[in-house]
Specification:
Chain lengths: 307, 307
């Protein structure tokens, strides 16, 4: 099974209102509650793909209980370590024009809770085929947390896929995950300049850089691969990167060659944009987009090789 | 003990942000979580006064669990009936200027859940000295819900205090509670015109009308009493009406005469305005305001009698 790690999950609330009126009182017409946090989106996409997956990380309080309950309702297996703090909420207020977001701060993790998580993580490495590490680190967790998890996974022979930003990404890359998936802004924040040079400056292993509608660039040891969606997709880009990670993690497990791997990741990302919410994808858009991208490097698609 | 009924409670969240930016994303600096709903404020004020109190009503889901947990942390005894729906949240986003509110809709109550609550309520009438009935009715509960509860309490010899609005108030008044406490707007919405005439048109029993900084008017069978705070109090008026109900409920139990009763209710309301959050009061403001209002009708205060 693929293990997805989410150290700073959230309960995502979407409030539909008629119109946002600053300093007014709003009757919320509908409330949507979803498990939030990038790693949970990865787990939900993998589950929708029919892949065996287990979501782990840190959850606390009544909000954490609700997140676990929502995952259970969707049929996603989870094994979270309970913390004393309260899992954070995010609130997105949506009216006819746009969304206004409110992000609660995450709970602070104690050293004992982090030690408990490490023990749980090492247990999960037994049955794991791939581990994904997604999103920000909550306060209290060491900055090199992902590097520590990557090192444990390496010793257990389990490949890791890292999708985070800032110092957590910089530190994590030092442990050489099997793959990293920053987006172009996250990469540029750590190493300005052209994407290929930046990826090689930061990482010794393969880096897949997502560039929104411009698609993916994979910077491997001595190769660069590109793949973009054949037609632009309208929709909600939130969660597209997580769908990309879901596709890449499956490909890592199956040793899928770069052209097929990127084509699959581009198609699943486009299908996630076409779905109204993060952590889901439109199966028909997935199928159509995948079919429209030639699966081999020689297929005349936008996939190309540099040596 | 005084039993407070809250059929539509909430988890009240207050988000502090630097500045509200419509269609922006906000990092919330601090989150305050409090049990919400008028009846829970009544219970918390009574508990702070040292009065034996039990909070009952309907709670569901992880949010309901959190409300019960917060009450337990404050030491407030509660006995809520669990429902299948999720208790609602309210979110108040506060910046340097003002507050912007988002109110989730309440869960819909099933007939079976309402029947369960009625059975629980009748059990609680045994040890109850007074019952307060506060706030709106959630969807699914009959419009005459408060009238039914008042009738049950009457049969058990327990006086009731009704604080609600709209059809729930109109229907509730038909069952003749021992006292009602609408505010001036709620009364005017059902019966326009002068307060005393409106109260007598709607209710056969005593009605205490709250008028914000202008204080209270009590319309009894053949008397009208008035009492206002001696000095204006700056602060947060949310919850002042609930503090008033807390004072009135204690007075109902103790058969406190009108002048003392209104003086106490005015002082406790003012002390609630002086407290930063609903469901609490400033003990020093309570003491000082109470001392500044003569306790008898002949004391030269603003209390007067009409026959």
């Amino acid at each position: 099974m693929i293990v997805t790690v989410t150290l700073n999950p959230a309960l995502d609330l979407t409030y539909a209102v008629d119109a946002l009126v600053p300093y007014g009182t709003h009757r919320v017409a509908t409330v949507a509650e979803r498990p939030g946090g990038k790693g949970l989106n990865v787990a939900r996409v993998l589950h929708q793909l029919g892949e065996p997956v287990l979501a782990t990380g840190l959850l606390g309080g009544a909000t954490g209980t609700r997140v676990a309950e929502l995952l259970r309702h969707e049929g996603v297996r989870s094994g979270f370590v309970r913390i004393g703090g309260e899992t954070r909420r995010t609130v997105a207020v949506v009216d006819g024009s746009d969304a206004t977001g409110f992000w609660e701060p995450g709970p602070t993790i104690t050293p004992a809770e982090w030690a408990l998580f490490l023990a749980e993580f090492r247990e999960l490495l037994g049955p794991a085929t791939v581990v994904t590490l997604s999103g920000s680190l909550p306060p209290g967790v060491p900055l090199d947390a992902y590097a520590v998890l990557i090192a444990h996974a390496k010793r257990a022979g389990v490949p890791t896929l890292l999708d985070t930003s800032g110092p957590a990404l910089r530190h994590g890359l030092l442990a050489a995950p099997a793959m990293a998936k920053p987006n172009a802004e996250e990469l540029a924040a750590l190493a300005p300049g052209p994407v290929v040079a930046a990826a090689r400056a930061l990482a010794t292993g393969p880096v897949v850089v997502s560039r929104g509608a411009a698609g993916l660039v994979a910077v491997a040891h001595d190769e660069v691969w590109e793949c973009a969606p054949p037609v632009p997709v309208d929709g909600n880009p939130t969660g597209a990167g997580d769908a990309c990670v879901a596709a890449l993690s499956r490909g890592l497990r199956d040793h899928t060659p770069w052209p097929e791997l990127l084509a699959d990741a581009v198609a699943l990302s486009a299908a996630a944009v076409a779905a109204p919410v993060a952590g889901a994808f439109d199966p028909e858009v997935y199928r159509q987009t995948r079919a429209a991208i030639p699966a081999s490097a020689s297929g005349g698609s936008r996939v190309r090789t540099h040596r």
